[in-house]
Amino acid sequence: MPTTPESHLLKHRAELQSGLLRWYRRNRRPLPWRLDPSVYRTVVSEFMLQQTQVKTVLPYFERWQAKFPDFESLASACEDDVLKQWEGLGYYSRARNLHRLAKAIVAKPVLPDAAKDWRELPGVGPYTAAAITSIAFGKLEACVDGNVVRILARLTADATHHGDGAAAAKYFTPLASLLLSPSSPGDHNQAMMELGATVCHRRDPLCRCCPLAQWCAATKSGSTEDFPKLQPKEIEHRSVTRAWVVKDGALLLHRSSPRARRLANLHELPTATHLEIDEQSLDARDLLARRKRGITRYLITESIYRISLSEQLRLGDSLVWISFGDLQSIALSGPHRRWITEILAMQAADKRNKILPSK
Ligand code: SF4
To answer: Which CATH superfamily is domain 5-230 in?
Structure first.
């Protein structure tokens, strides 16, 4: 039978596992959930790290631990407090799921240790279940995320095309499972994630520093960036018009319904649609800020206009006046807090310029 890159890897799997683990134990970043591990800290870190980079997560993780140090304190917190602690990390369904998961865990007589049981808990997919059970309970479950897909596709120079990351993860899971170290599955999984994050970069991977280079088909053929073969995401452009409405020292905000899928209970600047405003009637001189942001495959241009509302307008229940002094204590979505802070700073600077006589 001809030798394929995959059979070559499997033939050398014991060497590969020990080389990878040696590299990891020498080079791993001293992250708080690694220095002082517990099931709870592993779970929180895995939720925070979904779609978010380690350097962004670090300050949130420390603040979260100070406020909610265990499943019990998180389970007994109110959702507003939970969202407030998550504010700025985005993808708020993760915070709500983590909150629901804590409630489900404290209601159980014992902590589950099998991936299939964790997968039944809110917000836990195959990757998170494998990460939690391998790291916290030493279970033989392989984690396959974008980093691991990239490494495995390059090690094998596998030219199979995948529609998206989830399809690629499913495709590479059997190989990841075969390569998993039976003695240290948690460290092995973390080593693969660490290697993907710090060495096997999407662009210009640092193959000279890679403990797996001797088994890597893509680096041997000088084609590392050709793998994995993923369908490029189609970016869709959208525009949203938002209103800056102030009355008696308070700002008008929209509070999403507790049942909303993405932003439940979060505050944002209201859109023209929330206020039933005809966007065509807006005056360009009232444009306070225009900002772009990306959410999944959407590139959204947000335009914020100063708007005076008619006194007769009846505001729906989802629109609330929040005094400027209380803005700090409510849960605002991260970009909206940034925009509000920027607009207030611009307005304060304008005011100062008007008061100061020009030289
Ligand atoms: S040798 Fe290079 S391309 Fe191959 S796994 Fe290592 S860093 Fe990635």
So the answer is: Hypothetical protein; domain 2 (1.10.340.30)
If you measure from the C-alpha of residue 9 to the centroid of ligand 1, how many angstroms do you get, rounded to a whole number? 13
Question: pLDDT of 91-148, one tens digit each?
Answer: 888 999 999 999 999 999 999 999 999 999 999 999 999 999 999 999 999 999 999 9
| Domain range 236-355, its CATH number among 3.40.1190.20, 3.40.630.30, 3.90.79.10, 3.40.50.720 | 3.90.79.10
Q: What is the pTM of this model?
A: 0.82
DSSP secondary structure letters along 4-16:
PHHHHHHHTHHHH
Which ligand 1 atom sits nearest the alpha carbon of residue 213?
1
* Residue 359 C-beta-side C-alpha neighbours within 13 Å: 0
Name the nearest CA neighbour of 145 among 126, 117, 120, 118. 126
Q: Which of 6, 15, 46, 302 is catalytic?
A: 46
